[in-house]
DNA sequence: TTGCTTATTGGTCGAGCACTCAATAGCATC
DNA sequence: GATGCTATTGAGTGCTCGACCAATAAGCAA
């Protein structure tokens, strides 16, 4: 009985298989890039035939868009969780900056650059980028509004402040693929410095909070 | 005498042909993207055979890197000319921001996103990106140093200020491919506002100068 | 005019890509 | 145990890409 000549088929429910495909694609998106999401590559990861991927995603572009959405969405949830049951807004922001300053954030920066470029040619992806931009912006805006109410943040416009911080983050992240040597400390801290200034916080407030966070605080859920 | 069956050959000096190829590739890079620089595409633009491009650039990646370098370098020269025979540093900066805020700058933003992403996979391009980053940074630093000397700019570190401005520009440019609706004025002015603050200039100084520039001032040389 | 150098051509190769579709087999239901 | 639905396969199509190379002809030098 030849085992290799005849493939063993594993039959799953459409919902489960689809989720599995998107998860595999999101993993590739985050680690290797959106261009590496090919029918063959994802099929190989899941040990199925390429035709099956086409069955669930008649257009490969749709899978790329979905993969980006899932990857970016999950990262946002890990960096700035939606439910803030404990901890002040300042602590949540500090945790974000602690994570976003580390090397582990490079994958996220790369993903965003990747998506922003590729969306030039892929309308479906472009639409997803817009959705995720809005999600990140709104998540930040909400934290800032909480901080204005409870934590002494001072800003005329929470949403403009959120955008300002995100613009600086994007600008710093732009170098994730080319930066070889370390950058000056003042540059690495540009995002958190901008946040402190724009939120009317004493210089060093957030970065000091970020430094005090333990490994457990930073651990992803 | 069939005219189309037999191609007429135009024989040029290696230096001239090479320059012509790079110029065509740089044009494609700026208008359509670095991925569109293919042997066939450039050959068609120049009305030669693809093999000829391979002859001058045995590795296509080298041509892509060269095209980016030329395109980015020329744009820098157009936006912030090297020789400042007349006009104050503030005027030079104002002219830059006037140009960099307009829609015409979108092609430049797109080029940078493109290069920053693609350099993830292309070492030769990554190296060129580093060179151009340094060139842009140094050009800005020089203008700022001049302004500190002659024009009342105040900053502890011209180079850090230059980096800060460039980071904000990169962050704003990141949306060049996805932004569909206009952004708030305060966001569009983020770069010039950052420059004014970091250079110790009265708020509105540079943007007012930028508004006063005539078409002739903005015209490219 | 003749000859030589080499810029340029034309054709080819293999790899990787998305997409299509009839045939097959897993599995729930009866 | 038989049946029907459909998830999955296998095989194939056509496309674009970079790279390679022997043959050709442009134009300079003698």
UniProtKB/TrEMBL annotation, chains A, B:
DNA-binding region: 38-57
Keyword line: DNA-binding, Repressor, Transcription, Transcription regulation
Superkingdom of the source species: Bacteria
Coiled coil ranges: none
InterPro entries: BetI_C, Homeodomain-like_sf, HTH-type_TetR-like_transc_reg, HTH_TetR, Tet_transcr_reg_TetR-rel_C_sf
Domain HTH tetR-type intervals: 15-75
Protein name as catalogued: TetR family transcriptional regulator C-terminal domain-containing protein
Source organism: Streptomyces luteolus
């Amino acid at each position: 009985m030849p085992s290799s000549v005849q493939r063993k088929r594993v039959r799953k429910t459409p919902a489960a298989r689809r989720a599995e495909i998107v998860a595999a694609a999101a993993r590739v998106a985050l680690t290797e890039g959106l261009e590496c999401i090919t029918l063959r590559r994802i099929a190989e990861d899941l040990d199925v035939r390429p035709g099956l991927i086409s069955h669930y995603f008649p257009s490969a572009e749709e899978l790329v868009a979905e993969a980006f959405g899932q990857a970016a969405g999950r990262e946002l949830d890990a960096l700035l969780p939606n439910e803030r049951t404990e901890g002040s807004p300042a602590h949540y922001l500090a945790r974000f900056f602690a994570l976003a300053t580390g090397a582990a954030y490079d994958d996220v920066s790369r993903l965003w650059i990747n998506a922003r470029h590729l969306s030039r040619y892929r309308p479906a992806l472009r639409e997803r980028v817009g959705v995720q931009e809005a999600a990140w912006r709104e998540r930040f805006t909400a934290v800032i509004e909480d901080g204005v109410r409870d934590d002494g943040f001072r800003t005329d416009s929470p949403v403009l402040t959120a955008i300002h911080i995100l613009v600086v983050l994007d600008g710093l992240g732009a170098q994730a693929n080319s930066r070889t040597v370390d950058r000056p400390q003042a540059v690495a801290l540009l995002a958190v410095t901008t946040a402190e200034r724009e939120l009317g916080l004493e210089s060093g407030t957030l970065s000091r909070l970020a430094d005090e966070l333990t490994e457990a605080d930073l651990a992803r859920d």
